[in-house]
Amino acid sequence: MDLSTLLTVVVLAVFVGFEVVSKVTSTLHTPLMSGANAIHGIILVGAILVAGQAAEPLPLGLALLAVLLATVNLVGGFVVTDRMLHMFRGRTQSGNSDPEHGA
Amino acid sequence: MNVLPSEATALLYLAVAVCFILALKGLSSPRTARRGNLIGAAGAAIAVVTVFLSARLENLPAILIAVAVGAAIAAPIARRVHMTQMPQLVALFNGVGGGAAALVAILELAAHDGAWVRAAVVFTLVVGAVSFAGSAITVAKLQELMTTRPVIFTGMRFAMTAVVVALLVAAVLVTATGNLVWASVLLLLGLAGGVLLVLPVGGADVPIVISLLNAFTGLAVAASGVVLDNVLLLVAGTLVGASGTILTRAMAAAMGRGVSGILFGAFRGGSTAGGGTVSERPVRASGPEDVAVMLGYAQRVVMVPGYGLAVSQGQHTIAELADALEARGVEVSFAIHPVAGRMPGHMNVLLAEANVPYESLREMAEVNPEFRNVDVALVVGANDVVNPAAKTSPGSPIYGMPILEVSDAGQVVFLKRSMRPGFAGIENELLYSPKTTLLFGDAKESLTRVLGAVKAL
């Protein structure tokens, strides 16, 4: 990636990030934190690439540790966020557990 | 395997980045939030499948086992954790993500000889290590494995300066030479920096630190995208960095303090130190029956839950009390201070768990003008977030913090464990006001007694 492409992507991502996150309701700030947390678990992609190229035992061991840690971050983050969001129900829904109707 | 041409890989990564943006966008309303998160998870799954198909990877069985073990560790923890422990869990997941980014960076160092990419390696390494170590201390503080007070030792300021200087020297050396030994030193210095950064932060300010470290890990992942020449990591990391930054600033504003004041406040003696003295002035204490009468015959009641409620696990009882009052025709809502609980929005999650509909959860700005029409404000396990000293006494450590203006309500009822001041260690004048009634005891027990009395009315 050359410098100008890099800067283009970063600047646009920063603006999208600010724009999207500033619209998040403060009621959902905890799920926002854990959801954003899950998203950076995507470092798993990098960890897999590095582990796939490792030839020596030590780098391989460290890379596999990175894969493990990143998976914990990614899987745990999305699962716990889903669990939290599942609990947010509207008034019309609070009596029954059918998420398809009401709200 | 190498079945995917690089164009297809790039397009799939773009689709994943869009999924992540939609995941964050969904959080603008509780109605769309869950679907958004599932879209994000689907995006992550696509990304992982794509990476396996995009490049020739050695060690495939070992990698798959590591992924399986990671998932097998994380999923049960995420399913079982108590909602009160959410801040610890978020900090934990954040820390391991930072650690993974640091490891990826150090392993990639040998593969690059351009100074520009090496600088990105150095950045990922340091920020990932700071995030890992800082999160570890944060988890220890929140889980009360160590003191929640600010930890300061003599020479700490010197130690911090020394670590920062050494970090800069090592960073320059690694960027110039790509030497692995120096990179390892850099990693250790990053870990030390993370510890020193979080130790002096007081328990009440820890949530802001979680948010800040979340932003740090995001930036580390973004920089690792530069190292690995991977646009997805770059975009996802930048998104998280931006969201963490916004949230950190919003939280600091909700506490009426700057981010640097929170991080370095303990050095200047301005942090939430705790302590304080108990005054001997008279207060009006009463029994659960009196409180039940006040609530049961009111028209509008606003409940103000604080961390004391979460500690006593009383969120289900307060929800039951709200139901019982609504059955009597009382209009009930919950006023949520942005920093109620132990992380931003924490109290909303705790009340949602107790089946309180999200329409009943009111934000501070929305509910403050309405307090003058409220008959009874019921403050449960909260103190600093309703303390008028934040508006009236410029010398107070919480001066400038936006508060819930419960003193505008007709009557105020505090359910409190004792007269001890809250986290900020300042007395609350409102407790001595003639319109205030106190009911002493553990929040959950008091609520249960009031609930029983309301049902008996």
From TrEMBL, chain A:
One protein family per Pfam: PNTB_4TM
Organism superkingdom: Bacteria
Mode of membrane association: Multi-pass membrane protein
GO cellular component: plasma membrane
Transmembrane segments: 6-24, 36-55, 61-81
Keywords: Cell inner membrane, Cell membrane, Membrane, NAD, NADP, Translocase, Transmembrane, Transmembrane helix
EC id: 7.1.1.1
Major enzyme class: translocase
Record flagged with keyword Transport: no
Domain NAD(P) transhydrogenase alpha subunit C-terminal, chain residue ranges per copy: 7-89
Reaction equation(s) it catalyzes: NAD(+) + NADPH + H(+)(in) = NADH + NADP(+) + H(+)(out)
Protein name: proton-translocating NAD(P)(+) transhydrogenase
Organism: Arthrobacter subterraneus
UniProtKB/TrEMBL annotation, chain B:
Record field: transmembrane: 6-24, 36-54, 60-78, 90-110, 116-139, 151-174, 180-199, 206-225, 231-252
Location in the cell: Cell inner membrane
Keyword Protein transport on entry: no
Membrane topology listed for this record: Multi-pass membrane protein
GO CC terms in record: plasma membrane
Chief localisation class: membrane
Top-rank taxon, per record: Bacteria
Catalytic activity: NAD(+) + NADPH + H(+)(in) = NADH + NADP(+) + H(+)(out)
Group of enzyme by EC: translocase
Coiled coil: none
Keyword Transit peptide in annotation: no
Enzyme Commission number, as recorded: 7.1.1.1
An annotated Gene Ontology molecular function: NADP binding
Keyword tags: Cell inner membrane, Cell membrane, Membrane, NAD, NADP, Translocase, Transmembrane, Transmembrane helix
Pfam families assigned: PNTB
InterPro entries the UniProt entry points to: DHS-like_NAD/FAD-binding_dom, NADH_DH_b, PNTB-like
Residue ranges of domain NADP transhydrogenase beta-like in the record: 11-451
Functional note: The transhydrogenation between NADH and NADP is coupled to respiration and ATP hydrolysis and functions as a proton pump across the membrane.
UniProt family annotation: Belongs to the PNT beta subunit family.
Entry protein name: NAD(P) transhydrogenase subunit beta
Organism annotation: Arthrobacter subterraneus
